[in-house]
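User: I'm preparing a small set of examples for a lab meeting where we compare how different chains pack in three dimensions. I only have the primary sequence for this one, and I'd like the structure in token form so I can line it up with the others. Please keep the answer compact; I'll paste it straight into my notes.
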Amino acid sequence: MFTGIVEELGEVVGVTPTAQDSVLVAVRGPLVTSDARHGDSIAVNGVCLTVVDVNGGVFTADVMGETLRRSALGALRAGDPVNLERAAALGSRLGGHLVQGHVDGVGEVLAREPAPRWETVRFRLPVALSRYVVEKGSITIDGVSLTVAEVGDDWFSVGLIPTTLALTTLGTRAVGDPVNLEMDVLAKYVERLLGARPTDAPVPGPVAS
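Assistant: Understood. Below is the structure token output for the 209-residue chain.
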């Protein structure tokens, strides 16, 4: 579990195919590797990956085909910057919102509107995911916990403060770039529970004696 507060802007060192539909990705991140061990979880652009090895500030992780198909990690190349966050510790402050690191789909940068102290960025999202996005609700973009400013049928916008622009990949994402999207898990559970309610079931009548 993560919070969507990026700890470090890392760099992809290499991407090595390991099978027909999987790769081994190596990422440099001195902060997140300072206490990392084999088996730990680190979110890379919002995708929860399991550490395979740590060596000199670089960690490696396996990325299977399902993850490559459902996220934008398949487009990573050596030299690319990536947002990094270690798994949250029990008892730590929840600065963002509850983030699983399970990407729901890939969005796209539609427009950027600079302002003196912040920037408004609009993203396209798959229509099937739009029902989970509400104005002033939470959404995770490339591992960054953000608040939705506006929402449409297939788009939404957020405001990025100077810190987010400077310390995450969202500051340099260009129009047309893909981004990983994770919806608020609470919305998905509520939908599932309400959909499973037997609202049309007949009301039991009196039992004949």
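A couple of notes for your slides: The helical segments are 65-70, 162-167, 185-195. Residues 203-209 have pLDDT under 50 and may be disordered.

User: Perfect, thanks.
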